[in-house]
Write a structure and sequence with these properties.
The protein is mostly helical and 75 residues long. 57% of the residues lie in helices and 11% in strands. The chain has four helices and two strands. It has helices at residues 4-11, 36-52, 54-62, 66-74; strands at 17-20, 23-26. A two-stranded antiparallel sheet has the order 1-2. A hairpin with a 2-residue loop joins strand 1 (17-20) and strand 2 (23-26). It is elongated and about 60 Å long.
Amino acid sequence: MIDLMTAIQSLTPNAECVVRGTEIEWHSTDITQPTDAEITAEITRLQAEYDNAQYARDRAEAYPSIADQLDMLWH
């Protein structure tokens, strides 16, 4: 599950803030704090991106790493 801080970091990578539960304490005066709607949309987008990559994660677990495969070919 994508959390609030992950979404904020995705939207404003250089911002400084603290998240306590659902409360955001914004410390970056030079960066505009994202709105609740922007954060919610980013959580949805990041979660969909993560969910869509499930196949790739499953495949990666099913096969050895490229380094291991190359080592097996060499030997």
